[in-house]
Specification:
The protein has 123 residues and is of the alpha+beta class. The protein has one domain: Beta Polymerase, domain 2, CATH 3.30.460. It has a five-stranded mixed β-sheet. Helix 1 runs antiparallel to helix 2 and helix 1 packs across helix 5. The radius of gyration is 13 Å and the shape is globular.
Amino acid sequence: MAEPLATLATVAAAAADAKQGQDTVVLTVGEVLAITDYFVITSAANTRLVRTIAEEVEERVAEADGTRPTSIEGLDDLRWVLMDYAGFVVHVFLEETRRYYDLERLWADVPRLDWADQAARSG
């Protein structure tokens, strides 16, 4: 995987997975959405795990190449934390919030990045 943004999206997905992120997916939205190239989507069983996952993603992406999110929203109620890295956006949902917004259905026509396979090859 040569593209740096895809690599960082993979790092974010692997970080979420390492902290019990559930059903983690990476959607390639760049062809249909001008503001970012990838969505990393994951969910957690409780608000404490939402925070833990967000912290792990921030730490691991920073370790990978020094990148920090341009903004983080949702840390006040921890139902949906959005971490904007410009080239990719990480969504960490509480399970019921993810079901309600169902971003995967809204973006069902975009390709998914096989992040787990990529992470295994680079890890």
